Amino acid sequence: MIFQDLTLFVPLVMFLVVITGMSPRPNPIPLALVSQVFGATAPKPLLMVLAIFAHLAYGGFWGTVLAVSIRPVTVWKGIGLGVFLWLVMQLVFLPFLGWGIFGSAITPRIAVVTLVLHVIYGTTLGFLMAHWEAVRKEDVCATVPCPPSSHPA
């Protein structure tokens, strides 16, 4: 589905941010969270696999929540989800890591960089889901008569 493809895209952007030196932390936040939960003494490859799985599952879960609970999905609703998830990260996950609210114990760049990534996630998710809904509706209406749309064109 679309949200699974998107959940693969955002880690790619994160990877590029880390290797270009734009990341405010040497380790991605999913890896830091998994290391905190399972202990830093766990084998690094295992932690990496768990971090990737946790990140994909988290993004896929919230993409699914958006897809099944809010109709019609729009870019703005996707951005709203992205900002909501960013706030959860800033107020729950970063303090759990000991990095402070909005990463204040490390650097304010964490808040800015992660906001940009979450807005990219939400924008892309909203755009792709809205497009997918429109294509799906066209396919259905091509085979079954559909009532006129109640939304203005």
What's the topology here?
Layout: H1 2-19, H2 29-38, H3 44-69, H4 75-97, H5 109-143
Distance between the termini: 27 Å
* Biggest sheet descriptor: none
Low-confidence stretches: none
**If you compute it from the alpha carbons, what radius of gyration comes out, rounded to the nearest whole angstrom?**
18 Å
Class based on secondary structure composition and strand pairing: mainly alpha
Strand content: under 5%
Residues in helices, as a percent range? over 70%
The H/E string reads HHHHH
Which overall shape is indicated by the principal axes computed on the Cα atoms?
elongated
Protein architecture, described:
- The structure is a single chain.
- This protein is mainly α and 153 residues long.
- 73% of the residues lie in helices and 0% in strands.
- It contains 5 helices and no strands.
- The chain has helices spanning 2-19, 29-38, 44-69, 75-97, 109-143.
- The longest helix is centred in the last third of the chain and has 35 residues, at 109-143.
- The radius of gyration is 18 Å and the shape is elongated.
- The mean pLDDT is 80.
